Amino acid sequence: MGFCGGCAKALLIVFNFIFWLSGAAILGVGIWMIVDKNIGSYFEVLNLDTHDQFFKYAAYILIGLGVFVFLVGFCGCCGAIRGSKFLLGLYIFFLVLIFAGELCAGVLMIVYRVQIEDKIDDALESSIKKEYGESVTITDAWDVVQVQLDCCGGNGPNDYVDSKFVNKQSEQMIPLSCCVLTNKGTAEENPKDAIAKNGTACYDKLGEYYEKGCKDGLLDWGKEHTTILIGVGIGIACLEIFGIVFAICLCRQVDREDKY
User: Fold this and answer.
1) Please, what is the angle between helix 3-35 and helix 215-259, to 10°?
2) What is the pLDDT of residue 42?
3) Sign of the CA dihedral with 101 first, then 104, 106, and 112 last
4) Contact 162, 193 (CB under 8 A)
5) How far apart are CA 225 and CA 217, in angstroms?
6) Exposed/middle/buried for 259, CB within 10 Å: 0-12, 13-18, 19+?
7) Is the separation of the CB atoms in 87 and 73 below 8 Å?
8) Angle subtended at Cα 220 by Cα 149 and Cα 197, rounded to the nearest 5 degrees
9) Which residues are within 8 A (CB) of 13 and not within 5 positions of it... i.e. 6 or more apart?
10) For each of the chain's 260 residues, which pLDDT tens digit applies?
11) Which string of DSSP letters, residue by residue, matches the chain?
């Protein structure tokens, strides 16, 4: 094989090693979506039901895509080492499919994030007034978010006014998770173990409670994580373009050698 063909072969093998790492990253994101309890809490608060089958399917699709990337990378390595036009052609086809899928997923993620930002006020207010204290899942999710972000309610503690929680707990104007705690570290793991610094003052909103709402913290958390995911997706997509180019060059070199 000529110099250009040898370079294309070496570059394709190096690319596939990086491609395998990207597959591991995608696989890790899918597993993270399933096992991380914090992401479930944040999504629940935003009225994005993590118990919905579509959320689980999205996580499983990412896991499946990560495994698929491993298989495609293996196909590319075998095609490069053996100089097989069939394997290289199959490899190019799968790379184009993955590239198109990632492009669509990135666009959908951007659109989805914009929709969440547009509807977040209504979503948070509805979640607080109608479901906090009624739904165990939503209540636990809000407690996790409020303890971790040092906040209270969506736009502030007044979100609890006329809520079902306050109507049931007439002696409390805000929940324990809104209070300044003496054991914040422990409470982040299990909000039910939280101990208020001054529960009497906190519950009556006289002091020792957080006055800022959780909206900004939730938006910052969402932007941070979606920006990372979008950036990783763009980086992998750019790598795939190089992989396609290397594979085409190697495929053409193999074709030339077959003619001679």
Assistant:
1) 150
2) 67
3) negative
4) no
5) 12
6) exposed
7) no
8) 10
9) 77, 80, 81
10) 455 556 767 777 777 787 777 778 778 877 877 776 666 666 666 654 444 445 566 677 778 878 888 888 888 788 777 777 788 888 888 888 888 877 776 676 677 667 666 777 777 888 888 888 888 888 888 998 899 899 998 888 998 988 888 888 667 899 999 999 998 888 887 888 888 999 889 998 988 999 998 888 888 877 777 777 777 777 777 777 877 877 787 777 766 665 55
11) --HHHHHHHHHHHHHHHHHHHHHHHHHHHHHHHHH-HHHHHHHHHTT--TTSHHHHHHHHHHHHHHHHHHHHHHHHHHHHHHT-HHHHHHHHHHHHHHHHHHHHHHHHHHHHHHHHHHHHHHHHHHIIIIITTT-HHHHHHHHHHHHHHT--SSSSGGGGTT-HHHHH-TT-SS-GGGB-BS-HHHHHH-GGG--BSSHHHHHTTSSSB--S-SHHHHHHHHHHHHHHHHHHHHHHHHHHHHHHHHHHHHHHHHHHHHH-
Report pTM: 0.65
Type of residue at 175: P
* pLDDT at residue 257, rounded to an integer: 61
Structural contact between residues 168 and 181, judged by C-beta atoms closer than 8 angstroms: no
Which two three-digit tokens encode residue 5? 């063909």
CA 159 to CA 22: how far, in whole Å? 42
Tokens of 200: 């009497």
Side chain identity at residue 115, one-letter code: Q
Q: Which amino acid is at 95?
A: L
Match 């290289």 to its residue by tokens. Answer: 88
Provide the pLDDT for residue 176: 92
